[in-house]
């Protein structure tokens, strides 16, 4: 089985998914191969945007699964008509205009939406088979996380296809839609919060006399190594944190100051605020 995938809005996240799907390792068997499109049509609003996609694809080698890419602009309707699966990659405020523009031809298609705040009920006004996805920018490098929710009409045959495609960006997690605003904050906004921590560690080293480049490298390795330690050990972060602390030592002294300054509560409150904003993004779209 072969099919066409249309990407409506191939910007940062659309290109991340395009890159991951196009460059996915060759499918192990015919069943897995059927999950990959033979053709991807990217749809943007103007010629420069379309050229960005063309330039990106030209940096790739041949797709291991034989996928061809056609970069277009101003041809949303014809692209959706040809496609069996449609990926909505627009910004949330543009989603209504884009979806209304293809409303006459999108019915019956499987819609995979990356538009934050747009609920399954809202998306189901256009087609009944809806997959809502929240991923993040590390997806561009294959180290992302994607939280996925499905409408009731998505079949058991369609879910493995979505799983195969979306898993190419990194970790695939299926959750009920009620968790999607929280996932938008934790997963979608999370990289920016982690980068703030990375920047803070880097600049602390700089303040204490470590050159910028070396401070950056040390801070990155501290984050990378700590994540691997949690992953490999399976231990709770608090257990590992206290293993670093010695009585009257440097680590507990630094932690006490951070707690006094509200670092932990600040992060939690920041994620909560991001989730609150996420819950409002689609409210005007009834």
Automatic annotation (TrEMBL):
Keyword ATP-binding: no
Catalysis: reaction(s): L-proline + NADP(+) = (S)-1-pyrroline-5-carboxylate + NADPH + 2 H(+)
Residues that, per the record, bind NADPH: 76
Domain Pyrroline-5-carboxylate reductase catalytic N-terminal: 5-117
One Gene Ontology term from the biological process aspect of the record: L-proline biosynthetic process
Pathway per the UniProt entry: Amino-acid biosynthesis; L-proline biosynthesis; L-proline from L-glutamate 5-semialdehyde: step 1/1
Keywords: Amino-acid biosynthesis, NADP, Oxidoreductase, Proline biosynthesis
Binding site for NADP(+): 8-13
Top-level division of the source organism's lineage: Eukaryota
Recorded GO MF terms: pyrroline-5-carboxylate reductase activity
A Pfam family per the record: F420_oxidored
Oxidoreductase recorded as keyword: yes
Pyrroline-5-carboxylate reductase dimerisation domain segment(s): 177-281
InterPro entries reported for this sequence: 6-PGluconate_DH-like_C_sf (IPR008927), NAD(P)-bd_dom_sf (IPR036291), P5C_Rdtase_cat_N (IPR028939), P5CR-like_CS (IPR053790), P5CR_dimer (IPR029036), Pyrroline-COOH_reductase (IPR000304)
This enzyme's EC code(s): 1.5.1.2
HAMAP family in the record: P5C_reductase
Family that this chain belongs to: Belongs to the pyrroline-5-carboxylate reductase family.
Protein's UniProt name: Pyrroline-5-carboxylate reductase
Species for this entry: Saccharomyces cerevisiae (strain YJM789)
Gene: PRO3
